[in-house]
Specification:
Layout lengths: L2 E6 L7 E3 L2 H9 L4 E4 L12 H7 L1 H11 L3 E7 L6 H9 L2 E2 L4 E16 L2 E8 L2 E5 L4 E5 L6 E7 L8 E2 L11 H8 L1
Length: about 190
């Protein structure tokens, strides 16, 4: 289940939660964040390679390429048995911005994006079928959980791909981790 919780930036215990797709879409649209649901053009095997995955979502990918001028697309995945999972998680947990969009489509699994915008923090739980497009220069962080399991399509307008400018803020330490957030929704 996808979810959105909107918090005052200094009150991580006082969020208002939404689980209805239209409500999530409406709130994120107000801050310039694109949130969509995609379906594959065909059935995908669990071990589908990158080319097969991209082909299965080619119509949606091409629409975004035309809309934003994306130059490259790839597929990234991480599983609980990955030896560097803790290091990868720490890299994304610090608040940062990008000069490019951060676009992720969740083919499987889930992740929690935190967007820090205009005195509020938006926690966006993305799950299988969800696309999130975080605009350039939007302050945010991402939690994949202690035992990450996800596969995502990423789109980039620059050949460099994921390049972060870290803010140095420790705000992310005040908000629930992915595992705590999901437990709180139950």
């Amino acid at each position: 289940m996808s979810a959105l919780t909107v918090y005052p930036e200094n009150q991580p215990q006082s969020g208002v939660a939404y689980t209805d797709f239209n409500a999530i879409h409406r709130h994120l649209d107000q801050i310039g964040v694109q949130f969509e649901r995609w379906t594959a053009n065909c059935e995908l095997a669990a071990d589908a390679d990158q080319d097969t995955v991209i082909a299965a979502y080619s119509d949606s990918i091409e629409r975004l390429r035309q809309q934003y001028g994306f130059q490259s697309v790839d597929v990234i995945s991480l599983n609980p048995d990955h030896p560097d999972k803790a290091a990868f998680r720490q890299k994304f947990l610090s608040e940062h911005v990008h000069a490019d969009f951060e676009v992720r489509f969740f083919i499987e699994g889930r992740g929690l994006f935190y967007l820090h915008v205009d005195g509020k923090v938006y926690a966006v739980l993305c799950e299988q079928g969800d696309l999130i497009s975080v605009p350039a220069n939007t302050t945010h962080w991402f939690d994949m959980g202690e035992n990450p399991k996800f596969k995502c399509i990423r789109l980039f307008t620059t050949p460099e791909g994921w390049v972060a400018d870290f803010t140095g803020s420790d705000i992310s330490k005040s908000f629930p981790t992915l595992d705590q957030y999901v437990t709180g929704l139950a």
